[in-house]
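Q&A FORM
Asked by: J.P.
Topic: structure of Endolytic peptidoglycan transglycosylase RlpA

PROVIDED:
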Amino acid sequence: MVNRALRSMVILAALAMPATAAQPQERTHAVGGQPAFETSFARFEALPPPPEPAGRVVDLSTIEPPVEVAPAARPLGVGVASYYGRRFHGRRTASGERFDMHALTAAHRTLPFGTLVEVTNPSSGKSVTVRINDRGPFHGNRVIDVSREAASQLGLIRRGHGTVHLAILEP
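REPLIED BY: S.T.
REPLY: Here is the structure written out as tokens.
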């Protein structure tokens, strides 16, 4: 019963409100009663050109940025490359780090550890840059043993070995 009485009082109060209170009012400036925004673009004009620079100013259009040059390659020779992978994965290399068959690393008999060597497969034209971190290969006529990932990128996985061109990259 109390709810009905309360509900009817709210309805009567809503009906008694003036109609202008429910209408949204137009926003105006505090001064002059003008609308808050201008809908005409007639008042906008083009901006004047920027002033000429004064004093010692560098013209950036004459400066050529330095070009990054690829490291120079010093040919090392041609030979047969093979790869090593799963059987040696996780074992220590001659440099002391663990062998990762998914990294781009290689073994060479004489090059210093950390040397970057570009290995190119001439039959496919593919090349990869490997870092020397191990000693080897210790098999006959091979000149370099690359990781499984490097062999995959060179296209040596199927045969297990292939003729490659070697070049030392110098920074």
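FOLLOW-UP: The longest helix spans residues 2-16.
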